[in-house]
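We modelled the chain as a single entity of 228 amino acids. Its sequence is:
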Amino acid sequence: MPVESSRIPRVPSSAPAAARGLRADARNNRNRILDAARETFAALGLDVPMSEIARRSGVGAATLYRRFPTKEALVTEVFADQLSACVSVVDEALADPDPWHGFCSVIEKVCAMHAVDRGFTAAFLSAFPDAVAFEEERVRAERGFAVLTRRAKDAGRLRSDFAQADLTLVLMANGGIATGSTEAALAASRRLVAYLLQAFRADHADPAEPLPPAPPLGLHHVHRPPTA
């Protein structure tokens, strides 16, 4: 459903308040769990078992499940800040007077975030019905992007057959980048996004922007497994 307002009310997270109410030792355990989960999800994605998170954080499984009873609870807590940053990117683009520039900036910035964090890609594309605040923020980002899409089409800059599902395709393609280094992942993401944005343009009569430099990748990178 189109959303006419360029600003959609943000749902505040209660997580920081909950953390402040913990004892010092419990708060330290919680932070260790979150740090270990953040690093592991970024490198390996969301399929890492909870037992591995407990091992890497140095806490027992009982402590982990006491703080985070389900993986969904852990995932949504880990990626709350990244999701808020993603929503902020959409808000900034909605305030841009150039609809095409705003549309492009969202895809470029979000894909850059996703290229260096495999877990966030999966979390953003997943549904978490029990995590109300997380879901509200994700839906807010989707609706804001729908507004950007409509504006770019109305301005004659975005091809008319671009669909909201195409954003999912972009993120799926970008999330598959596995290069072994942050620098190469970002370079690969920039070039991929540049190709895609050229394909999305409706005004091909204008000279195209030059592509970013090619990343240092070979065919052997296609099947490179993720590393922690």
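As a brief sanity check on the tokenised model: Confidence is low (pLDDT under 50) at residues 1-15. Residues 132-154 form the longest helix (23 residues).
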